[in-house]
Design a protein that fits this description.
271 residues, mainly alpha, two-stranded parallel ribbon, 6 helices, 2 strands, 71% helix, 3% strand, extended, binds 2-acetamido-2-deoxy-beta-D-glucopyranose
């Protein structure tokens, strides 16, 4: 009987310890998980810092190879920073802290459209009203004008706060992770489409192309704008763009001497 009693105690104590263990681990599972997040963020922060240092070193030199490296490291830096932002946001919404709703799957189409419409309409209203207020200001006497200009300043302040509040909705509605994922996948899709458009499987000579001369004789911004316009058309009609840039006023050696060419293996115009 005594032996059975001892065994009973042993079993009871084991169960008790096991129970304590379960309670302990379940209480600590969230902080542990957060710790993983925090460690990762700290690691990324260190990586970003060291890349920044390297970048600064490379930028101070003016070796051509180094300049190429600067570009690469810049991209790497950006990628790490984006991941860090994503993690920070995930951590914040996991903790439910600072009033943010935890991350949700995806918004309804109506919600997302309405949010954008409100932002757009508020901005348009600001433009319109500012323009009207300025017009009135031009017709006032000096004394009235001063008072009126204060009204304009107040209105500008209030508009900025309103627009910031509308933008901040994206930080608290829980859909920001979804938005970032959508942006990234859309960007990937477009890049893939442009790549396949610009690198046709058939030999270049057998493909209908769009030839565009960047040499418009206008300013640099205007010429790049023109080239983009050609690219839109090329994409819309499904033909690779051939950018013609011999004797370009901004670099007589051509566009490809400075920038990556729009295509690797389809670069000759049919003409
Ligand atoms: C928008 O959010 C930022 C960052 O959370 C905050 O600093 C700012 O005050 C907010 N602005 C408004 C108008 O709510
Ligand atoms: C051009 O390059 C792409 C990707 O590198 C390749 O898939 C395609 O077959 C190439 N086209 C020709 C004609 O070599």
């Amino acid at each position: 009987m005594l032996l059975f009693g001892n065994k009973f105690y042993l079993i009871f104590i084991s169960l008790w310890i096991f129970g304590l263990y379960c309670i302990f681990t379940s209480f600590h599972s969230t902080p542990n998980n957060n710790k993983v997040f925090e460690d990762r963020i700290e690691y990324l922060q260190n990586e970003v810092d060291s890349l920044r240092q390297k970048l600064a070193q490379l930028q101070s030199g003016n070796n051509i190879n180094d300049q190429v490296k600067v570009g690469n490291e810049n991209v790497q830096c950006q990628t790490l920073e984006n991941e860090m932002k994503r993690l920070k946001r995930a951590l914040r919404s996991k903790n439910g802290g600072d009033g943010t709703t935890s991350s949700r799957e995806e918004p309804s189409m109506e919600y997302e459209k309405l949010r954008r419409k409100i932002e757009m309409q508020a901005r348009e209203l600001t433009y319109f009203t500012t323009d009207q207020l300025n017009k009135i200001s031009g017709k006032l006497t000096d004394d009235d004008k001063q008072k009126w200009d204060n009204v304009i300043l107040r209105f500008a302040d209030q508009s900025r706060v309103l627009l910031a509040s509308i933008r901040n909705i994206t930080e608290v509605d829980g859909y920001q992770l979804w938005r970032e994922r959508e942006h990234a996948s859309l960007s990937k899709l477009m890049q893939a489409r442009l790549n396949s458009l610009q690198s046709p499987i058939k030999p270049c000579e057998n493909v209908k192309r769009v030839t565009c001369n960047i040499n418009k004789g206008c300013g640099y911004g205007c010429e790049i704008h023109h080239a983009m316009h050609c690219f839109h058309i090329a994409y819309a009609i499904g033909r690779p763009l051939i950018l013609f840039s011999d004797g370009w006023r901004y670099n007589s050696g051509g566009f490809d001497q400075i920038f990556l060419p729009p295509s690797q293996n389809c670069t000759t115009s049919s003409a």
